[in-house]
């Protein structure tokens, strides 16, 4: 398994993985899957923000992906990231999410970020909750019934993990 930066050649596979989760799952509250142009636009936005979008490639095929985004756009949040992880449904439970998330955490720490947040649906999110807890995240809260998909109300669970020194020291002045 190779973890690498996503490139335009990965867009069709990323789109297929995400479309599955949009149509059949509750990991995202989107209800209409974006087309390849929509995924390309999202990939471009992440890259232009100086943040990574990683893919896990095995036997030449994308098996999952993870990207980082700013938790919020306001300047005061500049040391906090949010992660998103999606795995090809045929390859879930094989440690791909762990590899991707570990790689993303290492990247974020090397860049000097101090906190990472995950927002996980409670629908079929047990695996995602377990993935994040195993990676050192702690549950910090639950937003009850904030989503409605597949005919039911869904909660989101907020998880957080310190990166590097976390809040034990102040960041450099900028």
From TrEMBL:
- The question of whether Transferase is a record keyword is answered with yes
Q: Does the keyword ATP-binding apply?
A: no
The record, for InterPro entries, names: Acyl_CoA_acyltransferase, GNAT_dom
Keywords on this record? Transferase
The membrane-spanning stretches of this chain are: none
- An MF annotation (GO) of this entry: acyltransferase activity, transferring groups other than amino-acyl groups
Q: Which residues form the N-acetyltransferase domain?
A: 1-164
Q: What is this protein called?
A: N-acetyltransferase
